[in-house]
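Quarterly update from the structural biology core.
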Amino acid sequence: MSQTLSQIPHQLLSQQQRLTPQLIQAMDILQLPLVALDERIEQELDSNPALERAADEFEPATVAESADGVDGEQALVLNKDDSADDFERLDTLVTEYDWIEDEEFRPSRSAAQLAEDGDAKLEAMARAPARPISLRDYLLEQWALLDLDATTREIGATLIDEIDEHGRLAASVEAMAERLDQPIARVKDALARVQSLDPPGVGARDLAECLLLQLELAPYDCELECRIIEERFDDLQRNRLPQIAKALGVGLEDIKAAVDHIARLSMHPGHDFSERVAPGIVPDIIVDYDEEEGRYVARLARGNQRELRISPEFRQLLERSRNDKSVRDFARQKVEQASAIIDALRFRRERLIQVAQAAIDAQRDFFDRGEQHLTVLRMSDLAERFDCDPSTISRTVDEKWMQTPRGVIPLRRLFTGGTESDDGEALGWESVKARVREIIENEDRRKPLSDDQIVKQLSADGIEIKRRTVAKYRSQLSIPTARQRKQH
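Predicted structure, tokenized:
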């Protein structure tokens, strides 16, 4: 059972400052996608003679084993007989920082008995070096992995061709619809899917939309930030914060904090992309349906199961060097560094499978019925369940991909905002948008409903949203105003 802060020995607390680099390393490795992780492991093996691959590192491991750890030398960090009291496990330190283990979220062992045919291919993909590619090629690479109909795929590829070096869509939706001879609604739907690609904010038509797209992925509640951009963007650009506070009826300090969050977003996602090497898209998680359990189960792709250990030869060197201080200090330093990386890798595996399985369980309807049935799932929800900070969930999710029955998708896609009905049912924004469309389709064309009237109907359904949100959804659905819809 995980320790609480009060249960952690005073000795460990006194070592907190010394062990902080280990914690930083663990969080850094947690954030790495699979290709970058493989590169990091190779770097560690090349630079540390105390570290080596476990002989059976490529044997299949169940998800449950990944969460529980592996027995024997393969799971070795340092035995107490060899390390003395100053080598404390990182997982104990992690507990001090409020990360916990939770048996409820450990997937079934039977998941590992499912198909492994794709693992060899994933292994080869993981070993392929990352390469510098253009923003266009990177977007097309992601686009090819989505489960799309032929028309949407063609429209999206054409839209990607129109994205400039800043990451913005250079042509208007209307112009693209005319060029492709497609309804504006189809083009907007394809654009929304393009805008879900990495880097966040790509495909926006203007700066405001670019910022809003990034806020949709934020691990915190950003309603105020969105209101500032949607309602007072001109004031924001002119730094008229008092006017924004007055117009929105919000305290100035809250406005300052929200503006600070907005300032950290990227104005030019394409520029950010050009400054880094594009990662290869290699799934970290494989999702299969387990008929015995009647649910979708996550397991780690084989590249995540690489096991390292302390070299037995190096351990012997440490034993033999008791009388040679310089050799002993060198050996002890390398062993400590090796133990830290081993713990960090295990920490990454445990947290990744925990978060992925929890998200998969929460989005069962998505896997059964499709994207329109994504329900509300915020990173803060899982942070509360796992008793950690939302930023930890964000690091776990960042740049991680899943091979699922619905194609290869980013883990981040399972996290979406939304609202809540009167009976407490979580409703994703796609579900609310579908309800807006349904209300309008069933209206009296001679007396079409205003946005305020739609708000009232939604309220009668137990869905509380604002008029501006209805107007935004109506626009995204390419539905004109009530006056324009009126038939005489």
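Residues 5 and 96 are 5 Å apart (CA to CA).
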